[in-house]
Amino acid sequence: MPDKITLINVVWMTVISGMLAATIALYDQKPDQSKIYGPFASARPFVTTSQY
Length: 52
Description:
The chain is mainly α. The chain has helices at 4-27, 44-49. It starts with a helix and ends with a helix. Keywords: Membrane, Transmembrane, Transmembrane helix. The chain crosses the membrane at residues 6-27.
C-alpha cells in the first residue's frame, strides 16, 4: 500500500486534472455571433474619432 504522501499526491492530481478538464470543456464553446449587437469594443476609438 502506498504511503500517505503518495496517496495525497494522487488525489490532488486527480482533482486538479478534473478541474482543468471541466474548465477547458466549459470555455471551449464559442458564443453565437448572431446574439452580439453593435460594434466590437476595439471599434470604439474609430467611432469617436470619426465624429470630429
